[in-house]
Amino acid sequence: MNIKPGIRDFLWMAAGAVVFSAIALIVVHFQTGQSPSDQLAFKARRVDLASGMRMSLASASEAEKSAVLAITDQDSQIYADQARTATADVEQKRRELEVLLTQGGTQREKDLLAQFFPMFSDLQRIDKDLLDLAVRNTNLKASSLAFGPAADALKEMDAPLLRLVTKSASSPDARNVALLAYGTQIAALQIQTLLAPHIAEESDAKMDAMEALMTKQDQLVHKDLEDLAALPDLHGDPDLAAAVAGYAKFSEIRGRILALSRENTNVRSLAISLGQKRKMLFLCQDALSALQQSILEEPIAGVDYGYPPAPRQLGTEESGKGK
Fold it and tell me: Would you state the pLDDT for residue 34?
């Protein structure tokens, strides 16, 4: 015999469902210790920290590139300090987020933050090396010497050599004087033209090759000047002495240029910025983006965030109503 439930039974069943739902909500509330509004606020704090970390990383990267490209030590130092401050802000926010995730984050969020940490540590190491190089500006200083004092020193050599040629025009040694004077100028000019590519060069081997060429030309300069001094008419000549002094000054400045160029701080910092730093920055940003998205997708009981129905679903419902 089948016993059909009556109205009273349905009422009891409905009442039981309501009580069960209420108990479930109470259990959820006491398990989390937060109301839906509290959970939303807690989520917002975590999202803000993840977003702030991404923004600070971008700010640090922008300041770092400015430090690399700045043309003065002062500007490079200012931008480097800004980059370090922004990076420190990332670390501070990371620690705050770590505490919050310990209090109430999902395991996936904790894992994503844990994955971010070693990448960020590598980024900090790269930044330290990069910024320490950028603020020294040795390539810029070498260029400044090459196109300033070094070029001026060669002029101090060229002018007296031209005077030697002019005043020796009627002497029996005129041809020798001209050949030796012009030979000196050509060899010195060859050295000067190698300075700029040496400053811009990244490879030690190529710098070695350029310095070897400079040494050969330097030997030619000294030989020509010595041959000029050996001519009887030029013994003790003040113009020849001035030319020798001018080239000696150029040689001293050239040594300083090559030493600065060898440090290569601008070239090396730019290479790191465009290579290692760029790759690691992308990895850090991707990790933070995934973490931020994971926090946003974290469900909260009774909250649907006001998402509208998908267009396809809405169209299906309306077509069903028409039938």
Answer: 62
